[in-house]
Amino acid sequence: MISLLLTLSKTIEHVALTRMTVFTPKCLSLLQFACRKGYSPLYTIHLILEIVYKASNDKRHMSALFLYVQGAFDKVLHQRLAEIMTNNNFPPYLVDWVQSYLSDRSVRITNGTASEPSFTPIQVGILQGSPLSPFLFNSHSLPLCHNHQRLGVDLMVSYVDDYCLLAISVSWQRNASTLTAAGNQLQLEANQGGMNFELSTTQLFHFPYGKIIPTADLPRIQFGEHHTPNNLEQR
Predict the structure, then answer these.
(1) Structure pTM?
(2) How many Cβ atoms from other residues are within 10 Å of residue 62's Cβ?
(3) Contacting residues for 86 by C-beta, under 8 A, at least 6 apart
(4) What torsion, rounded to 10 degrees, do the Cα atoms 110, 114, 118, 120 define?
(5) Residue 11 carries which DSSP code?
(6) In whole angstroms, what is the distance from residue 151 CA to residue 226 CA?
(7) Phi, psi at residue 165, to the nearest 5°?
(8) How many CB atoms lie within 10 A of CB 207?
(9) pLDDT tens across 173-219, in order?
């Protein structure tokens, strides 16, 4: 759902975003590629491919797990966002401004022909149509992106609400075991922050090993009751 915002409001938000991105290099994880000046999704892809090519030359097996945060902007907890920004060295005046910006807001839903009779206060979440929202979600999800070694994977990168975990080892079976443990741990940490990964959109890719092409019967990733098989459609 897209929020319709005043032009003046968006202008102020762009000014605030410019101030906040000054602190991006020292406040956000280096593996969060969104909201960084001069970066794009292509940088994320290039980094992943560079590691994949190197592992292939080293005769290693590679597997990647792609995750998507469900309803990302709707899940941002305002107080938690303030605590994370404070703990990661954002200036106090910016933390206070963000809290003021998010507080005392309300919403009324319309489909073009009919509207709700009254406005509903917004207690959780950030605005879908705001230029600030990707940056604020990046800040809110920062704890998920620190120290990917804790998950036992070789790489973890994110672009706003999209995540990639990369495992490299002597076999696809070991990669699947690593990614299962890492994915479940990341899901647990996301749940503790009020977020949730959309399991139906989760994708697993076992990369080819030399001339050996991965097949559908390779080990799957398991999230509780949900199983994610090896994706063959993009080969």
Answers:
(1) 0.84
(2) 23
(3) 92, 95
(4) -30
(5) H
(6) 20
(7) -110, 130
(8) 19
(9) 999 999 999 999 999 999 999 999 998 889 999 998 888 887 777 88
